[in-house]
Write a structure and sequence with these properties.
This protein is α/β, with parallel strands linked by helices. Among the domains are: 4-93, Gyrase A, domain 2; 99-116 and 451-565, Isoleucyl-tRNA Synthetase, Domain 1, CATH 1.10.730; 172-231, no CATH class; 387-447, no CATH class. The chain contains 21 helices and 14 strands. The strands form 4 sheets. It has a 5-stranded parallel sheet with strand order 6-5-4-10-11. Helix 5 (138-156) links the parallel strand 4 and strand 5. Helix 5 (138-156) packs across helix 19 (499-508), helix 6 (172-188) crosses helix 8 (225-246) and helix 12 (330-342) crosses helix 13 (357-369). It is globular. It binds one RNA strand through helix 2, helix 6, strand 8, strand 9 and helix 13.
RNA sequence: GCUCCAGUAGCUCAGGGGAUAGAGCAUUGGUUUCCUAAACCAAGUGUCGCAGGUUCGAAUCCUGCCUGGAGCGCCA
């Protein structure tokens, strides 16, 4: 399927170039030509503002528009070209062309607007990457949904995509997890245990401990924390995967942080940075002022290993290896990302919470210190998400507390149970990643009947309903004459033809939420048509009915495609 | 204190140099002999946080300020 605005952009560029060749316009480098749908229907289907180029061309905007139109090669899909003050060129798409696209859409099916922007290129999306120390929370879910939608859109753009989970199973937190489970287990078998406040407080560890006690009695009393760490990790990992699978998210690569320790890659990374002159040993960072040095001295640290990240623009240097010999989280992270770059992806998208902002910066400085170009890596930062609920008493929204007893929740599992996988996916996606999200529990749960989720899916359901009825009546669209389609149906086809640009923009700007808004707009165009353009109705002549049935087959293809791009289901009934 | 993100309708949010700023929810009234109501039709609401600046043109770009959030660990 063609992206019509792209075709027009090339045509306008060509017109400008030919005018330059003939000396009609001065020489200048032709910039990007933005062609997009205008706001109002009487402004055509696609529009180009020539005002922006008027100064370069040394013409009045209207003159320039006129000149472009004169030199424009005729395009099969364009019916009418108009110039509107102060210098817009408005194009109308030919009805014949739109009618032909109905069959074209059906022929493309699941490949409708499968683009070739990324043909022959590889992309990786790293997302979720939650520590295996607890369940997937609402916060993780946002990253999960955004990342998976990004992956689907990249695939639609033609990239070969890998979905990766950086499995953060090394480090201090995992030790604490192991020790936590160990103590919970000992509590279960009746030992008097003092459970530290900075250990994991979640009830899920108590449940696992109870299961272990049921299965093994007190036979595990002599196992060390490492044994319990492995036990906890395995269960958490399984749990996380089950939760993600429930909203149709599957990674196809799991990268273990521990592997970076086992094969010594973190130390090789450190040495490579040292060889490039970016590592030093000290009790404090080189740029520290007197107050900082005094502060550090009071803590009595032995020298640590520092990365001179300030040389790359960082506000201060960072510790790579602590004075106790253990690496910080940053070192394996740099090693991991250097490995990622070495794998040669054209694009490596990383979906992170904004709390990782500084960390991501330091990793990029680290990659530069290794002599690598971090350019293929693009980070989508998703802002905080919190579940809120309207509190009538105070007349304001209130954050939902993390208390299962009170019927509140903060995990993906609970969210899915209370709403649905599709609702979770839509609501998490239908927001710009860099705006904070208040997930209104009541709106998603109680008002699910008037939810955009079902508004969109219902469009597909309605098509399916027509096909069922048509089958029962033995009515087919064989030999449909698409010239009988009306203005309503063509409006939908116009909207459907915008999908290519939506995919392209979502991919090139790393804005997967665009597809969610587009889906809603598409449904808003569809439903009124469904009301008016009936198929199996006594007053609709059979030849018109055939044409319409064909049209709805195309509409179903479009909705199916869009729903799948969002990772949502396309149900036949609701 | 420094960095990043946000502030647009009553609420939740799109739009991020282009024509008269949009959607959902909420509110009000109406619509179904035949695929359909999780739908359709109709109605109303804005100092686009504030103040300057750039531009033919600013909700959009620049500067300053106000408000909310995140980050600035020898945590991960």
């Amino acid at each position: 399927m063609k992206q019509l605005n792209r075709e027009l952009e090339s045509a306008i560029s060509a017109a400008l170039l030919s005018a330059q060749m003939d000396g009609q316009l001065p020489a200048f480098v032709i910039p990007e030509i933005p062609v997009s749908p205008p706001k109002r229907a009487d402004q055509g289907d696609l529009s180009y503002p020539a005002m922006g180029l008027a100064r370069l061309a040394r013409r009045s905007p209207l003159d320039l528009a006129g000149l472009i139109v004169e030199r424009l090669n005729s395009l099969a899909f364009i019916d009418c070209v108009e110039i509107a003050p102060p210098g817009f060129i408005n194009f109308t798409i030919a009805d014949d062309y739109l009618k032909r696209q109905v069959d074209a859409i059906i022929a493309e099916g699941e490949d409708f607007f499968q683009l070739d922007i990324g043909a022959g290129k590889t992309a990786q999306v790293e997302f979720v990457s939650a520590n295996p120390s607890g369940p997937i929370t609402i916060g993780h879910t946002r990253g999960a949904v955004v990342g998976d939608a990004m992956a689907r859109l990249l695939e639609a753009a033609g990239y070969q995509v890998q979905r990766e989970y950086y499995y953060n199973n090394a480090g201090n937190q995992m030790m604490v997890l192991g020790k936590s489970l160990m103590l919970r287990y000992r509590q279960q078998i009746g030992d008097a245990v003092d459970y530290p406040r900075d250990y994991y407080q979640g009830e899920y560890l108590i449940e696992i401990a109870a299961q272990l006690a049921d299965a093994h009695g007190d036979a595990l009393r002599d196992k060390d924390w490492a044994w319990f760490k492995d036990a906890a990790e395995a269960r958490m990992f399984e749990w996380i995967n089950r939760s993600l699978t429930a909203i149709d998210i599957q990674h196809n690569e799991f990268f273990n942080e521990t592997s970076l320790f086992e094969d010594g890659r973190i130390w090789r990374t450190l040495e490579a940075m040292r060889e490039n002159g970016h590592i030093y040993e000290s009790t404090h960072w080189e740029g520290a002022d007197a107050a900082e040095i005094a502060d550090v001295a009071s803590k009595g640290y032995e020298p640590a290993t520092w990365f001179r990240s300030s040389g790359f623009g960082d506000e201060k240097d960072r510790v790579m290896v602590k004075s106790d010999g253990a690496p910080t989280y940053t070192l394996p992270d740099i090693a991991y990302h250097s490995d990622k770059l070495e794998r040669g992806f054209s694009i490596a998208v990383n979906v992170l919470g904004t709390d990782h902002f500084s960390q991501a910066q330091v990793v990029k400085y680290g990659l530069r210190a290794l002599g690598m170009d971090p350019e293929p890596i693009h980070v989508i930062f998703v802002q905080m998400v919190r579940a809120v609920r309207w509190n009538e008493a105070i007349g304001a929204y209130e954050a939902v507390k993390q208390s299962k007893r009170a019927g509140d929740f903060d995990t993906l599992d609970d969210l899915v149970v209370m709403t649905s996988a599709d609702a979770v996916r839509y609501h998490m996606l239908a927001r710009s990643p860099n705006s904070q999200l208040d997930f209104d529990v009541d709106q998603v749960v109680k008002q699910s009947n008037e939810n955009p989720v079902y508004y969109i899916q219902n469009a597909y359901v309605r098509c399916a309903g027509i096909f069922r009825e048509a089958d029962e009546r033995g009515f087919s669209d064989d030999g449909a004459d698409l010239s009988l389609l009306g203005a309503d149906e063509l409006r939908f086809v116009r909207k459907a033809l915008e999908l290519g640009n939506v995919i392209e923009q979502a991919v090139s700007n790393y804005e997967p939420h665009k597809i969610a808004f587009y889906a809603h707009e598409l449904a808003a165009v569809f439903h009124p048509i469904y009301d008016r353009a009936r198929v199996l109705h006594s007053e609709v002549p059979p030849d018109v009915a055939k044409a319409r049935l064909r049209f709805y087959r195309a509409a179903a293809v479009v909705f199916h495609r869009v729903l799948r791009l969002m990772g949502m289901s396309a149900p036949e009934r609701m």
